[in-house]
Specification:
The complex is a heterodimer of chains A (about 400) and B (about 110).
Chain A (H helix, E strand, L loop, with lengths): L8 E5 L15 E5 L3 E2 L10 E2 L3 H6 L3 H13 L4 E5 L9 H10 L3 E6 L6 H9 L6 E4 L5 H8 L4 H14 L4 E6 L8 H12 L5 E3 L11 H10 L3 H9 L3 H13 L17 E4 L4 E3 L11 E2 L5 H13 L6 H5 L7 H4 L3 H8 L7 H13 L15 H4 L20
Parallel strand pairs in A: 2-5, 2-10, 3-4, 5-6, 6-7, 7-8, 8-9
Antiparallel strand pairs in A: 10-11, 11-12
Helix pairs in contact in A: 2-3, 9-15
Chain B lengths: L17 E3 L3 E6 L2 E6 L10 E5 L1 H7 L8 H12 L3 H17 L3 E3 L2
Antiparallel strand pairs in B: 1-5, 2-3, 3-4
Helix pairs in contact in B: 2-3
Classes of the chains: A alpha/beta (about 400), B alpha+beta (about 110).
Chain lengths: ~400, ~110
């Protein structure tokens, strides 16, 4: 011990590697789906069940189970929990869960449509800040547009009230949009509106819609397919992006062109991210519910899931010749968002190519001048030359403007 | 905007006991004490945590709201085989810094 004089306390950024002394903990981030139920009935949603679905409500984790789960996550080193759904504010115990997580020292990210935000809850978020921006999904600038998506009369005004409660209290929030036939015409005006309201630099768009992750409703899947932007429209929109955004996409593609071969999992959990659904089932990510990849926490705790189940999932390989011949050899693989979760939702497998994602990825690459019409990326021999040579790792890790939805 | 409050001039005494404030949460990560602000007016930015140096951690773990700082210093002097005067200076220095940041409060 020495007389240090001053500097006993040091401020650090959360992501400073020094916290982990070079070796990150088993779990750094937990996505926690508090409910599948939602106050809205959005036409494109891959999760939502009706708010009044009592059978679904009965399957949800009880408050005590959620609290125990948060304790275990914090004990494993987790620093951030994302509370999502469905609509997490539907739960009567949301404030209790939120405060419990914060008192465990967890940062909390809340995914919400803001319609159920109340002055009391907003006051809580102002007094005990989440330390992560609240992420708000907004489905259009006009009432008619918005409610054509949500299918819920009154939802536009409720969401605007909720956003106002956050803004009035200077609670940091981030607005996400959805590119749908109903909202596409508003997208140019949406971006400046969202940035002015929240202070964000750009809007993250949900644009290549996921099918139902519980594979629970084929008629809804058919509707979602019909709402997807056609590849031709994706190509037109990509070609119309500002040059700087096009360059950012090219850099991302160049930086993530490494071929994956038979490897199935290349994202998220390598960085210690995990997910638990509303029923207490551990998942690799929120969208992946394939029975071979999930772990019911009633069979063993979170630590067992992370230490034993996770490595086994991560080690899974593809044996599907179609996948190996296309996705495994494709330099657009990381860009196209094809992954086991998408394959599960579309086909009920882990490794069947998703034609829609393949088509829109090729449409974007064509718009960026990387592919000629009809070319398939996995057959291109001079990819490095086309993207200007490989980009050093770590130079561009962000997928500009696109969300995988997980 | 929310105003950040800093306690500027509270006297820190060796005969008083101090305890972590309920406005922060302390977690041990990899054997290191990490202090996480809970309320809105501690910390300058959203993405901020605090760690303590080795001296600070040894003192922090003894701030239980019951032991006066003189007793904390005496315990540390035995453990670290350092001059009592140096130890007392460290204890007062850390607690002053933590009081200023509203991370600990006087209990008696």
């Amino acid at each position: 011990m020495s007389a240090a004089g001053s500097g006993y306390v040091r401020r650090v950024r959360r992501d400073e590697a020094r916290l982990w002394k070079g070796r990150p903990p088993l779990l750094t981030w937990l996505d926690l789906e508090l409910t599948d139920r939602c106050n809205n009935a959005c036409i494109h949603c891959s999760v939502n069940r009706p708010a009044g679905d009592t059978a679904e409500k009965g399957r949800e984790m009880a408050t005590a189970e959620v609290r125990a789960l948060l304790e275990h996550a914090a004990g494993l080193g987790c620093l951030t929990v994302r509370l999502t759904g469905g609509e997490p504010l539907l739960r009567q115990d949301f404030a209790e869960i939120y405060l419990y997580a914060r008192r465990l020292g967890l940062r909390v990210m809340v995914f919400t449509n803001a319609a159920l935000m109340t002055p009391v809850l907003a006051d809580l978020l102002a007094r005990v800040p989440p330390r992560e921006p609240v992420e708000v999904s907004v489905y259009g600038l006009e009432r008619a547009t918005y409610e054509a998506v949500t299918g819920t009369p009154g939802s536009f005004d409720a969401a605007r009230r909720g956003l106002g409660l956050l803004a009035d209290r200077h609670i940091p929030f981030f607005i996400k949009g959805a590119l749908l036939p109903a909202t596409a015409a508003e997208s140019a005006a949406f971006e400046p509106w969202a940035c002015a309201l929240s202070g964000q630099r750009r809007v993250a768009w949900v644009q290549f819609l996921d099918l139902r992750s519980r594979r629970d409703d084929e008629s809804r899947n058919a509707r979602i397919r019909a709402l997807r932007l056609p590849p031709g429209e994706v190509r037109r929109r990509t070609a119309a992006l500002p040059a700087a955004e096009q360059d950012e996409l090219r850099r991302f593609i160049a930086a993530h062109a490494a071929l994956q071969g038979d490897r199935l999992f290349g994202c998220l959990s390598a960085g210690g991210k995990g997910a638990v659904d509303a029923h207490g089932v551990f998942q690799y990510c929120l969208a992946l519910r394939h029975p071979a990849t999930v772990f019911d926490l009633k069979r063993g705790g979170l630590e067992k899931a992370v230490k034993e189940h996770w490595p086994a999932v991560r080690a899974m390989k593809s044996r599907n010749p179609e996948y190996l011949g296309r996705c495994g050899r494709c330099p657009l693989k990381a860009f196209c968002l094809q992954c086991p979760a998408k394959s599960w939702a579309e086909h009920g497998t882990l490794d069947t190519p998703v034609e829609y994602l393949c088509e829109v990825a090729h449409a974007q690459a064509a718009a960026l001048g990387l592919l000629a019409g009809g070319e398939r990326a996995w057959a291109v021999k001079d990819w490095d030359r086309r993207v200007g040579g490989p980009v050093p790792a770590g130079q561009d890790q962000r997928l500009g403007g696109q969300e995988c939805g997980s | 905007m929310i105003e950040r409050r800093i306690v500027m001039s509270e006297e820190v005494r060796l005969d008083a006991a101090y305890a972590p404030s309920e406005d922060v949460v302390a977690r041990e990560l990899e054997g290191e004490v990490v202090i996480i602000p809970l309320v809105s007016d501690i910390g300058d930015i959203e993405d901020e945590l605090y760690t303590l140096n080795e001296t600070g951690q040894a003192i922090w773990r003894r701030l239980d709201g019951r032991k006066p700082l003189r007793e904390v210093a005496a315990e540390l002097a035995k453990e670290f085989e350092a001059a009592p005067g140096d130890i007392e200076r460290d204890v007062l220095g850390l607690v002053r810094e933590l009081v200023t940041r509203r991370m600990v409060i006087a209990k008696s």
